[in-house]
Amino acid sequence: MARSRYFELFDSAQPKLAAGQYDLVGNQELSGEDRVPEGATAELRSRLTVRSCRYRLPPDQILSVWPAANEEGAFDSRLPQIVLRRRTLPWERQPEDPADKDTPWLALVVIAEGEGSISGEVPVAECITPGKTLAEPGDSPTGFYLAVTKETIKRVFPTKQDLRALTHVRKVDLADTELALGDDDGYLAVVMANRLPQFDRAGQKPIRYLACLINLEQQIPLLPDPPKPKKTFKVAVDRSMLTVHNRAIEEIALKAPDSQVADMVRLEMAAPFKLPPPHIDFEPPQPGVAGGVPELFRFPLLAHWSFTCTGSGNFESLMQNLDVGAIGAEPPPAATPPTRPALELDPDKRVGLEHRDRGGEGGRVWFRGPLAPAAVKRDNTLVHVSEKLRRPGPEDREDLSYAAAFEIGRLLTLARPSVVARLMRWRREEFGAESARRRAELAVEPVRKAELLSGVPEPGRGPELVIGRVLGKALMERAAESPREVLGPTRPLVDPGRPLELGDRPLVQILATGLDLPVAEVRALMKRPGLEEGTP
Amino acid sequence: MSDVNLTFAEFRDADLKAIDDVASRSAADAASSEVWVVPEELRKWLAGLRLLQGLPFEYLVPDSDLLPPESIRFFHLDRNWTDALEQGALSVGTVSSADRKQLEAMHPAIREETDAAERQLRAPGGEPGFGPAGEITGFLLRSRAVSAYPGLHVRAFDSEVGDKEIVSEDDPRHLQLMRLERLAPAVLLALFDGVPAIVHLEEPHAGLQFGVRLDEDTGNEEDLAGWVPPRDPATASELDGKEVAVYFREGAPGVIDLQQTAAKIEEVIGGSGGLNGAELALQMIRYPYRQVFGDA
Description:
The complex is a heterodimer.
Chain A (H helix, E strand, L loop, with lengths): L6 E4 L9 E7 L17 E7 L11 E5 L5 E2 L4 E2 L1 E4 L21 E7 L3 E3 L3 E2 L18 E8 H7 L3 H6 L1 E6 L4 H4 L6 E6 L14 E9 L16 E3 L14 H7 L5 H10 L25 E14 L5 H6 L2 E4 L24 E6 L5 E6 L3 E2 L18 E2 L5 E2 L1 H14 L2 H12 L4 H22 L8 H19 L1 H5 L19 H9 L3 H8 L10
Parallel strand pairs in A: 5-16
Antiparallel strand pairs in A: 1-12, 2-3, 4-7, 7-13, 8-14, 9-11, 10-11, 11-16, 12-13, 14-16, 18-19, 21-22
Helix pairs in contact in A: 4-5, 12-13
Chain B lengths: L7 H24 L8 H11 L6 H4 L10 E7 L1 H13 L5 H24 L15 E7 L1 H5 L4 E5 L19 E8 L2 E7 L4 E5 L6 E3 L1 E3 L7 E6 L15 E3 L11 H12 L7 H8 E2 L3 E5 L2
Helix pairs in contact in B: 2-4, 2-5
């Protein structure tokens, strides 16, 4: 296993037997002192097939691709790559000469949108340029192919010599999940592309690329010759490379020879249809003919994905060219003359802004957001209205920074009905007063208990804090042991009756006073039968 | 109490047991379900406000000249500003002057809890925040790098860290990231819990990558050139100060002429017979770039 944090690179990993059909012949030779009869051993003839993928790559063989499928980003200084699980995969077939075991049969080509097209699912026999055949049966009855023009091949495809340089085997530590990618043995095959995907810098447009892992068997001679080397490349997109199926119809109409315009436009329009549109019969123009449809070459497509190059400039140059500063730093001088007055900043980096107050009065004020160039001391005062946060600023102008903060905080909260509802409920709970009391109790509870048991205050708490509790406890204990001594004699359960002192006033007057009624009324009531005046 | 014949000793033991129960229950209370003055929903809302969540961008950057294209601006968070923001939010809950008095009485507790909630906001499992709120700092980055490299790594350290050092995630020098968010496709806001000495911005990691360094300075605006720093095949380390030009093919943007490039590399590192796959890969490896910001 590779050491942790290390990886090793190998040129190739060649299988003992390349994919294909083999005759297995077995012979035995008997020897001994006795004569061996003629025909005692028979020859064993058997057929052996070593399988490998040819038209389709099983999904489990792809460990990772870069850039990830459908990803967008600035990839312009990195080579797209595909990481394969089986280390021998790129060398399991010989694309041209069976004796040449070093040249891989797989290539990763990266084409911009329009430089080639991908077929629908077709029988494998159609997956290769017409006129070529791949002898033994493939791994799948149907497959896909990449169709490109000779021009695209010449400009984009790797040369035969490049193939070897673009493929290698990597040995990684299986414990390193970023590099091992879930592999089983720690050996991965990597196929790189030979093209840096570019961003359309002139048009400032993203370019969509298609990365295609193709099979080069039998078609190595199509690959371009070593080109004339150049130290730079043009960033502009060359539209002449676009194939007919992606060329705008107008462009065809303008460029094609008069005699073929009608046919070519019809062909272009028919291209997206699987079946030719009914009632339209036409002979396609001869391929390869000048002015006609360029000849398309087909390569079996094992895997493909697309990504979009949405930016230029790599991370390093972007980072190094950043304008670095604290907030409020002077902006770098603009390339074009400014179209508006320069930024007004005070020494504390507040910005001068136009302001109109509630009364409609205009004027300039100072404002600084929550981002300050230096630490600000926190003052911790609570205010209830934003007016209290208006501060005088330099040049006799108000500083509305904090007042604006207050207002936006209020408005953001008002925009959230659920928060407003919770705030109103919290208001009824007196802003958590009950919870605060409960929390204060919880905080001292363990301390209290310890003090109660020992009668000694916990460290950090003065005796005056516990003296009451301790005295109270002692008093309770004493009172419970001998209540008579501590609390005095017990009160009898029932007190004897107490004689009423009526004096010598007449009963009617006593009643009238007690009931707070006029004497005459009481006297009238007492005249009822059974009640006699004057008798107590 | 039904048992009137309880002796004093028995009574006292029962009493002590009761106290014991209360104490252990309250300890459990405090440990499991903490008692909060500010309800959770409000705590989250207020802490979010303090970390400037949902704040209109013009309040952060009132003038575009404060954050020009391709710039990074470091800042300290003005606590008084975020306190004012929070108090604006709290003012929604006060109707009468009695409410205001009550809120004033509770304010120290409220502030303490929102201070703690700030740190909790980004904790994945809602781990309790701790300690009073400290200084918060951060940066605003406006760059094509933000849109082109989603998921770039931002790390802050409170003390010196080697420029190429590989620092583990649980290193104590790490400052907690309180917020890391794209406010616009090309604007990134980061807030740190503390004042960093060093900030790293690192290209997103995606396994091992291969590529070249592009050079826009070719004398022609439409042209690009490239180079690689050659590596010693024996040690795999870069040969200091050397650059090898990368050759391209004519006609298709970005297609590398590998044979020519390999030959030129070979001239520098020595050897003959062309580079094989492993040798070329070694020369082309590009590690994620790390930009270091610190006191210069």
